[in-house]
Amino acid sequence: MLTRHQCLKILLVEDDLGAPTMIEDLLGSFSESLFLLQTVKSLEIGVGRLELDKFDAVLLDLSVSDSLRGSEAIAVLKGRWPTLPIVVLTDISDENIARSVLRWGAQDCLVKGRFHRTLLVRAIHYAIERQQIEEQLRQQALRQRLLGKMIEHIRSSIDPASILQSTVAEVRQFLQTDRVLIYRCQDWVSQLDGEEQKGAIVAGDGLPEGYIENQNISAALAVSCFVLVESQSVQAIADVSTAPLAGSCKELLTDCEIAAVISVPIWQSGDWETAKETQEATVWEVEKNQDAAESYIWHEASGKPQAQGKNLPDSMIAENRNSLWGMLTAYNCSGVREWQQWEIDFLQHLANQVAIAIEQSQLYRQLAIANQKLQQLATTDGLTGIANRRQFDRVLRLEWRRLAREELPLSLIMFDIDFFKLYNEFYGHLGGDDCLRQVAGAIATATNRAGDLTARYGGEEFALVLPNTSAEGANAVARKICDGIASLKLPHARSSIGPYVTLSCGIATAIPSAQESPNTLIRSADSALYQAKTEGKNRICHASNNSESAPIFM
């Protein structure tokens, strides 16, 4: 707004030789010189004068000897200098003309010969103030649109790098400053990868080559972060050379050719150490109950985990606290700059949105990690680490449908540890668990194709799904597995057929059909396994409907 006793430069566009004298008399009749008037006879000359000098307002006579009409003349001025206040002077006293002048973009309209000194001065001051208010409203609307655009981008994206980079680019363009960057604070420990992350520039626009690697810049940014934590407020420095800064900090900024700087803190409300513990607690809770793991539902829309039939304990809810994640910083290198309050408010609002984006992306990643672990728990046998029964059923069903379309064979091998009940009674349940793990490992090691699936079928029984595998191929795999178990030489003092742990195997092979169920293959393999057990154990038997129905002794 105008300050008291401020001298205003006024450009008068008027072809009437008497009018300038009259205007000069009116504006110059003050005890103090508050106006500096320059007069031109045509709009064309006026445009040239405006290009060379800055004026606070224009007094425009609509009857100047130009080929342009009033609306076109105002449009020319507003097109080149949209924030220039214009007061129109006219010979015609017509309210319609006055209203039209205002619609065209002028701030006021005065009829020649009908205004006195006070009215003219007031019209000039009001025109300047109204134009300033209009510009403020326009800038506010522009800021709101930019914020809306950025908030929409934040809500539609989970990629923090993209969000941060677009933020600094748009801020630099909007503020018309030299450099904008987002700095992540020193010694921030990332809970996502468990590795310590030193302070670093994570996004920047207008930065010269080598800027990010510059140790002086890093040191200055680290000091700024410390100041933000101590002050809990924005750091806005209009002139680095005169600012009350520590000598080393001022020297760093000066060496980096920074004349003015504004830094806005990016606070983070989430306690990610607690969040990580919460994630692990969630996994631990469902790991203790396999059924809970398998029925676990992840609600990505709300970002909240929910378990069917079971509420999570209160101890798994993370507490929030504010901590400084980093800062949004803008530099002026070309000269000093008095940062405006609206610029500070704008950057603070923007920093809040950036904080939301960061927290959203970190939370999403943590939820994704937890979801992946829970998915693994839901499909993996907790003791042996191989696929569980539910995963076996799912994969067998999918392979049955796929191979039915392709008309290719599907083989299934069922394994059972011989005399395992006696093994448990003699070596104890811990010894039995160790035996199950070693057998599962031997079975899984013997298969090297991506499509093969080793699963714990139940108790001491294991299953191996072999897509696109003939009976002969399945037999070779079964023999390899039994040889592998034999090479382990796991002691079995209660076995009646030898000193070491042995397996009984049942094999079934079929070309799947859409009219049949994969359960038929399970029943055939289970029948072959029963035959191997009843005929003395430690052998491989094929399903009776297969040409290789005779047991193979190990």
Relative strand content:
15-25%
Distance between the termini: 100 Å
Q: What's the shape? A: elongated
Largest sheet: 6 strands, mixed
Flag low-confidence runs: 187-197, 271-276, 282-320, 545-554
How would you describe the overall organization of this protein?
47% of the residues lie in helices and 20% in strands. The protein is an alpha/beta fold and 554 residues long. Strands 16-17-15-18-19-20 form a six-stranded mixed beta sheet, sandwiched between helices. A five-stranded parallel beta sheet has the order 2-1-3-4-5, sandwiched between helices. Strands 9-6-14-11-10 form a five-stranded antiparallel beta sheet, with helices on both faces. A hairpin with a 2-residue loop joins strand 16 (453-458) and strand 17 (461-467). Helix 5 packs antiparallel against helix 6 (160-175), helix 5 (117-156) packs parallel to helix 11 and helix 6 runs antiparallel to helix 11. The chain is elongated, with a radius of gyration of 41 Å. The model is unreliable at 187-197, 271-276, 282-320 and 545-554 (pLDDT under 50).
Key words describing this protein structure:
single chain, 554 residues, alpha/beta, five-stranded parallel beta sheet, 20 strands, elongated, disordered C terminus
